[in-house]
Amino acid sequence: MVKTRSEAASLSEQQEDGKTRLLLVEDDSELAAEIKADLEERGYLVEHSASGTQGLELARENPYKLMIIDRMLPGLDGLSVVATLRNDGIMLPVLVLSALSAVDDRVTGLKAGGDDYLTKPFAPEELAVRLEVLLRRPLTDTRQTILQVGPLKMDLIERRVWRQQRELELLPREFRLLEYLMRRPDTVVTRSMLLEEVWNYRFTPQTNLVDVHIGKLRRKVDGENEIPLIRSIRGVGFSLNVEP
What is the DSSP letter of 199? Predict the structure, then answer.
């Protein structure tokens, strides 16, 4: 339920308890209740709106730290909300939720101004990790479609990648894998996370699929006489390390 202006002010006053304030815009009431309960259990302060129009109004009037928004909403769709905020100069970090998982759909979401794109269904732990990463980022103009991490540069529209002046010839799956790592620099990601996001598996099969593709990607990213960027974390997963 959307709160009145006075109720919103009251909620803002609750910031003194040190909780990070989030806006959740989701019209699926059951899913919204689950997300809200989980995030509040993790220590966040979550306000919920069920429509894009109301969500846009709240985002314009309140100092949220981050917005989670569904792509398909009544009144005003999620990407239109994000694009409007960006045009207004509001650089609030945004995580887009959607059942659409095709590469073109994800690129459209990012081009509209989203900072990250999570496909449904998803695990609560995955959502929590993505929020932590976004909240650690400095605010930037999210309309950009270029990722720059250390010596790596990725063009999300042209689907091209460079390590300094050397262009990397990546297959589509390798591109998605590297994109996932570049959005989480210096962060350990598990094999399960990669299987869910890059391969869209909703279970954990007994396979070395991730290791094989990481090996191929590493040979393309880490050239001869170059500092290795992709690290294997024994028993856990992998990390793209760009700090010296």
Answer: S
Tokens 């759909």 label which residue?
A: 105
Condensed to tens digits (0 to 9), the pLDDT of residues 91-128 reads 788 999 988 755 556 666 666 678 888 888 888 998 99
Answer yes or no: are the C-beta atoms of 79 and 108 closer than 8 Å: yes
Residues 6+ apart with CB under 8 A from 99: 71, 72, 119, 120
| End-to-end CA, the chain | 47
Which residue type occupies 186?
D
User: What is the Cα 25 distance to its own chain's centre?
Assistant: 15
Report the predicted TM-score, pTM, of the whole model to 2 decimal places.
Answer: 0.52
Distant-in-sequence, close-in-space partners of 188: CB < 8 Å, separation ≥ 6: 233, 236, 237, 238, 239
Tokens of 70: 């569904």
Alpha-carbon distance of 167 to 153, in angstroms, equals 9
Cα–Cα distance, 105 to 36 (Å, whole number): 25
Nearest one of 239, 238, 226, 233 to 162, comparing CA atoms? 226
